[in-house]
């Protein structure tokens, strides 16, 4: 094989991998769309499904093309996770603190994608996965450990901080620097969807973090149930159903934004 043909093969492989990673963003959009619709269903008195990744993936599995779609989800999210790891490796910000902060963000995002990939893979091979129950089981195990309360508080505060970061990223439109957003009406729409979507996701993640802290303080692992418990807890607040409907609609908007991200993200 000549050096020219080898280079051409590498370019082709890179493009194929990039295409798979962009499919990953489409998958994220679909999952957030479904989670948002489930949350809206809960707010309006329905929605028996879990309003989290496992609930969304189970809805996908129950469609006529569920099994092949699950495998597409596995491939897309796995490629997206690898892409995030690669971004962490090649990160070269001149400021050392920012460089390591960016790397931590990329690795954390990759871990989240891997977790969803594992859930999709479990369902694809015929297993069952309940994110909320897994969170409660893990919380109970942590509480039983020496220093478990402190560990869970730290975890909860960390998750809440991630939620706050999503809100800040949305308000500041920090996502713009990672995308080639078109001008005109389409660009304004993408920016608006990104802002609303990031804020809604930040609220959901932030509440989930707070519930971990509450579980630690009350020694009640049933309080911690991930995004599903976070969204359902919103319904119990004053005007909670309205708040939950707005957050659910925001997650739907974030899902649509992810579709645009698949097209315009820097890769």
Question: Could you describe the 3D structure shown?
Answer:
With 267 residues, the protein is mostly helical. Helix content is 79%, strand content 0%. It is built from nine helices and no strands. Helix 7 (184-218) crosses helix 8 (226-234) and helix 8 (226-234) packs across helix 9. The radius of gyration is 19 Å and the shape is globular. The relative contact order is 0.15.
Summary of the model, kept short:
This protein is an all-alpha fold and 267 residues long.
Determine the N-to-C terminus distance: 28 Å
pLDDT < 50 stretches: none
Return the structural class.
mainly alpha
Average pLDDT score = 79
Instruction: Report the order of strands and helices.
Output: HHHHHHHHH
Number of strands: 0
Principal-axes geometry comes out as: globular
Main sheet makeup = none
Rg from Cα: 19 Å
Strand content is under 5%
Helix content: over 70%
Number of helices: 9
Please specify the SSE layout and strand pairing.
Blueprint: H1 3-43, H2 53-61, H3 66-90, H4 96-124, H5 131-143, H6 148-172, H7 184-218, H8 226-234, H9 240-264
